[in-house]
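Structure tokens
________________
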Amino acid sequence: MLIGKHVVFLGGDARQLEVIKSCIEMNAKVSLIGFDNLQSPFSGATQRRLTKKVLSQADILVLPIIGTDDQGKISSVFTSEEIYLTEEHIKALPSHCLLFTGLAKTYLKNLCESNQVNYFELMMRDDVAIYNSIPTVEGALMMAIQNADITLHDSQTIVLGLGRVGLSLARVLQAIGAHVKVGVRKSDDYARAFEMGLNPFYTSELGEQVENADFIFNTVPAVILDSAVLSHSPYDVVIIDLASKPGGVDFEFAKKRGIKAILAPSLPGIVAPKTAGKIIARTMMKLMVENVAEEGNLQ
């Protein structure tokens, strides 16, 4: 339980709502900053402005999944106000305060590390990434279906990368009857794809492999579908790029060739924000309770 603990939420999107709900249910004191346009305010949470005083009373600070940008700007879909997290704000946090975010860019990492703030990057955890692969795969299939005039069943489909998302995606595509090839770099990934009954190939052969592709799903966070590769692909191929920005596709070249290539990062928060929020809430609550209990034992 989080009885008596002050949890401050600073910005975010619909995924944060499930985390807020969980904190209220666990009897935490909850303050919301950057939620002034929330249509259904929470009973048990208080709207605040970003001040050093509020942060000085925080036991836990929860930032958006994307953390901050390189200037410290906080994203929040529930306010029109621009919010920036500065070093003064971080310095105001108590020494025991825990900071949670999805991903921490260099700006946020430097702030936390230079001020000895204990922070957690949820999206770097294997369990969160595996759970998140579920809405990511469903969203990828939805986008492919919406942008094609053929079925995924009996299609020639390529999945690039056999990481946590690629593995789930290849398995589901195979289950619905697609002919799935998987592009990998490492021999152990090649062996795993072979064991699953897929058709593995090394990405060094990608130019040859795309020649008859109907769909290509990319999970590799580097430009792997460059102009040299795309020049071998059919004009009517549909490419769904699930890698983080800027993605793994030469989008300018794809556009010139008339290839439909769609950059679709962060699908969980778009296609299933409630499910994505529950995934984050479950992991965050576990970490909060564990760390609060540990702090209590040290005192």
Remarks:
- The first strand starts at residue 6 and ends at 10.
- The chain has a mean pLDDT of 94.
- The CA atoms of residues 145 and 179 lie 16 Å apart.
